[in-house]
Amino acid sequence: MVRQMYPEFHKIFSAIITPMYENEQVNYSALEEIVEVQIKDGVEGFYCCGSSGEGLLLTLEERKKILETILKQSRGRVPVISHIGTIRTSDVIELARHAKSVGADAVSMIPPYYYKFTMDEIIGYYETVMQNVPGIKVIVYNIPQFTGIEFSKNNADRLLGNPGVIGVKFTSQNLYSMERICDAYPEKLLMNGFDEQFLGALSMGASATIGTTVNLFSPLFLDLRRLYKEGKMKEALKKQKEINLRVEVMCRTNIFAAVKYGWTLRGIDCGNCRAPFKPLSDSDKEMLKDLYDLKTEKSNI
Known about the structure:
Layout: E1 12-15, H1 28-41, E2 45-48, H2 60-74, E3 80-83, H3 89-102, E4 106-109, H4 119-132, E5 138-142, H5 144-147, H6 157-160, E6 165-170, H7 175-184, E7 189-192, H8 198-203, E8 208-211, H9 214-229, H10 233-250, H11 255-265, H12 282-292
Parallel strand pairs: 1-2, 1-8, 2-3, 3-4, 4-5, 5-6, 6-7, 7-8
Helix pairs in contact: 1-2, 2-3, 3-4, 9-10, 11-12
């Protein structure tokens, strides 16, 4: 069986948040700080302007500058993937051209949303971007709970067979479908997108993960992967449970705002999420303080 290619992406990626000031302007200075601290914490790569980064609430110019800021601060020490997906194909082409020109290692794209596009139209959207930006490395972003589109080996054969598509960010609980894609396309990169199922995803063929809680808790993910590779499944499951506790509590509120608040507690004020998201309540903050006060081996908050 052919093994997944692109070992440079077999990493623990932070789905990095976008710090903001109170007036909702992007705080690029704070972004530089959290990039540096996360690399020191052990984060092995960044995925910017995705769900955690409020990508669809940002302007195209903000998305470009965020990518440039992360690339400049990371200085080639870790790979950087830029999420460029949005509904209008011409905007995606513009972001793809920019990402390639400034040195992003790959781009990722959600399918076009809102309108009930046919699968032929959706695949055409990806193909048009790749045709207009030759040589761009594309990671398909499978996140059906947000887009209403679930990619599988049955409905996306034409897309997954395209050599410009190097892999899939799989943010779905359907691990059976993940395994079937891995079996059908063993050369493609499979990247887990749900922090709470990292261990299960590894067993189904994933070789990387891109996570919201990686922003704050990268040592837990690094330990889990190490234990899995060593065959220490009971210990790996314990680490997964530690991750899941954090996910469970943070999902009681806005998980993206919860991550920002965690960084604020660490001394880098990342503000709130952009409207229409609401700021965290005082009770939310108290709940999160209790969570972040947990004394866990190698926990970095």
